[in-house]
Amino acid sequence: YAPVALAKGLTGQYLKEFSITLAGAVLLSGFVALTLSPMMCSRTLAEKSRTPSKNKLAIFFQALLKKLDASETIEKVEKTYSRALDRVLTNRKRATVFAVVFALFGYLVYYFMPTEQLPSMDMHMFEYDGHAPQTSTLDFTQRYVDAIDKIISECPEIENRQYTVTNPTFNGFVLLKDNCGKSTEDVLERIKRRANEVAGIDVNFSSGASGGDDSSKMIMFVVRGHKSHRELKEISETLVREVYASGIVQNMRTASKNDAEDYTIEVLRDKASALNVETKVIADTIAGMMQGKLATKFKKENKMYDVKVEVDEDYKKSPDQINNIFVKAMSNNEEFLIPLAELVR
Q1: Are 239 and 230 a contacting pair, CB within 8 Å?
Q2: Residue 303 in 3-state DSSP?
Q3: Burial letters for 226-243: b for 16+ Cβ neighbours within 10 Å, e otherwise?
Q4: I want to staple 292 with a disulfide (CB 3.0 to 4.6 A). Which of 94, 125, 217, 310 is the partner?
Q5: Do residues 152 and 213 touch, judged by C-beta distance below 8 A?
Q6: Per-residue pLDDT tens for 324-345?
Q7: By C-alpha distance, which of 4, 3, 1, 5 is closest to 27?
Q8: How far apart are CA 238 and CA 256, in angstroms?
Q9: Could you tell me where the beta strands, DSSP code E, fall in the chain?
Q10: Are 293 and 310 in contact (CB under 8 A)?
Q11: What pLDDT is stored for residue 102 in this prediction?
């Protein structure tokens, strides 16, 4: 059982205590079988005939025991056990107090010892994700994500790293060296201090520790009120700074809604029906042009990029510019483009 305690990974961590317990039980059982059991057998079993055995195996063990002088060893163990038992029986009060104190200590250890489903294990990796303002361009987000990546690359403990930008969000994965000499939390703490100086984006880090259950240590704050989105965001940022300044929080994640405005577009159904333009086509056209539609992906320098089709930034600065979009219509079995302004208001 002992080699199981040397196993690596979650299996070794999960079965370590079990294997050590079984190994200790086997050792104690062997000690009892070789010492106390023969002594008790000599006292409780009836003496048999002294006729020498003709069994070769029995003759071999008898010669071996005689050579090792096991009888003398067993007699010493018996006398030691007998003296210890006499002391306990003579000082029963002290023995009782010792037993009670030992039992109480065991209860306190069981009650105050932290418990978890699986032991926490440092996986030597961590992840990060975040988002830029909703109206950010890809170049804006890329510039600040590159700043975060540069901070990470300057750590000598980093072995490999990669990140993906899906404007305005991004995420990354970082692998540490196995023998870097520092824990993931130590490396993360140093990176977080420098990453907090990067303005323009919100970024959150999470370590790759497996096992454990920290759900009881998590708290959640909800910030809401009859204020503008910008005011609520400023309040939440102040709250984050104050909580981090307390020194009792390891990681904090904000989940504010995107700072975007909603507009209602009314479709002129009579005109749309006359031109065979479905409402879904109008909605898909607006979403594809203004928000962007994922067309494909391509890889460059070990980085994956999304290819999105959308109108230029200069043509979506105002809601009124939606009227410059054209949709496909049909009349008399002929297809043609019609301004969106003719179909919506």
Answers
A1: no
A2: strand
A3: eeeeeebbeebeeebeee
A4: 310
A5: no
A6: 788 877 777 777 788 887 888 7
A7: 1
A8: 14
A9: 125-131, 158-166, 169-176, 202-207, 293-300, 303-309, 326-331, 334-339
A10: yes
A11: 92
Q: Please report which confidence band the pLDDT of residue 310 belongs to, taking 50, 70 and 90 as the band edges.
A: confident
Q: In terms of C-beta distances under 8 Å and separation of at least 24 residues, what long-range contacts does 286-289 make, across chains too?
A: 286/322, 286/325, 286/340, 289/316, 289/325
323 and 263 Cβ atoms separated by less than 8 Å:
no
3-state secondary structure of 236: helix
Whether the CB-CB separation of 272 and 278 falls below 8 Å is answered with yes
What is the reported pLDDT for 97? 92
At a CB cut-off of 8 Å and minimum separation 6, what does 258 contact? 134
Q: Could you tell me if 74 and 39 are in contact, meaning their C-beta atoms sit under 8 angstroms apart? A: yes
142-156 confidence digits (pLDDT tens):
888 899 899 988 888
Residue 210 one-letter amino acid = S
Q: Which tokens sit at 216?
A: 């009881």
State the angle between helix axes of 184-195 and 138-153 in degrees (0 to 180), rounded to the nearest 10.
130
Q: Report the alpha-carbon distance of residue 114 to residue 131 in Å, rounded.
A: 36
| Three-state SS at 282 | helix
Residue range 268-296, pLDDT digits in tens: 888 778 777 888 888 887 777 777 777 78
User: Distance from CA of residue 76 to its chain's centroid?
Assistant: 56
Q: What is the pLDDT of residues 3-60, one digit of tens each?
A: 887 877 667 777 888 888 888 899 889 888 888 787 777 665 545 545 555 666 667 7
Contact 128, 206 (CB under 8 A): yes
Single-letter amino acid, residue 258: N
Q: pTM higher than 0.85, yes or no?
A: no
What is the C-alpha to C-alpha distance for residues 241 and 196, in angstroms, rounded to an integer?
Answer: 10
Long-range CB contacts (within 8 A, 24+) of 9-16: 9/121, 10/118, 10/121, 10/210, 10/211, 13/118, 13/119, 13/121, 13/211, 14/118, 14/119
